[in-house]
Design goal:
The chain has 211 residues and is of the alpha+beta class. The chain contains 7 helices and 11 strands. Benzoic acid binds next to α2.
Length: 211
């Protein structure tokens, strides 16, 4: 059975471009993003890795570390990083796991044999400080990911962990949020002093509580 939301993610030891890590220990007390790419020295992956590096401070602002993976060895990642810096004008500033035997890839279900027997798909996992899986998405090899969407989901997860709200379609920081249906109107009035708009008993919108 593949990993499901809420599961504690597997722990493992693996070599990375920044030394050997034990995954749970590396995550520490914060959040983590583990993402895979199909292969080193490929064009879409080259653009993705540079973008993740550019966004490193955005991830750090959300107490989140990032780590990449492909089924290539660390030596190959290190060679490829030179090309990434040369062509994208951005050095890779986060660790990349070398996984030539696909041990980690198989633990996380990153190889989808009907897509490719050998390459990892483009997986993204958001892992919370309790080491639980909070988001899992899979993109095909031919489609580069939008890592700003990953930041948006992190914002939503971190906000909804703190307040009894959820985030509606296309939500972004500063937009209205949805009040949990488990709260009565009286409780909502108490919890959300800025007030709320009641469109239906189950659809009540309030300004973002931490703004
Ligand atoms: C790429 O990163 O460009 C790529 C990798 C594997 C298959 C297709 C595209």
């Amino acid at each position: 059975m593949s990993l499901q939301l809420g599961d504690v993610v597997p722990d493992f030891e693996a070599p990375t471009t920044q030394g050997t890590i034990r995954f749970h220990e590396w995550i520490g007390d914060g959040w983590a993003i583990l993402f895979s790419h199909p292969k080193d020295f490929t064009p879409v992956c080259t653009t993705e890795l540079a973008e993740v590096a550019r966004l490193k401070s955005e991830f750090a602002a959300r107490n989140t570390k990032v780590i990449g993976l492909s089924v290539d060895p660390v030596e190959s990642h290190i060679e490829w990083e030179k090309d990434i810096e040369e062509t994208q004008g951005q050095a890779v500033n986060f660790p990349m796991i070398g996984d030539p035997e696909a041990k980690v890839a198989n633990l996380f279900g990153m190889i989808h044999p009907n897509a490719s027997n050998t390459f990892t798909v483009r997986s993204v996992f958001i892992i919370d400080p309790a080491k639980k899986l909070r988001l899992s998405i899979t993109y095909p090899a031919s489609t580069g990911r939008n890592f700003r969407e990953i930041l948006r989901v992190l914002d939503s997860l971190q906000l909804t962990d703190l307040y009894m709200v959820s985030t509606p379609v296309n939500w972004n920081q500063g937009d209205e949020v949805v009040i949990a249906t488990s709260l009565s109107d009286e409780e909502a009035t108490e919890r959300f002093p800025k007030g709320f708009r009641k469109l239906k008993p189950y659809l009540r919108l309030t300004p973002q509580p931490d703004r």
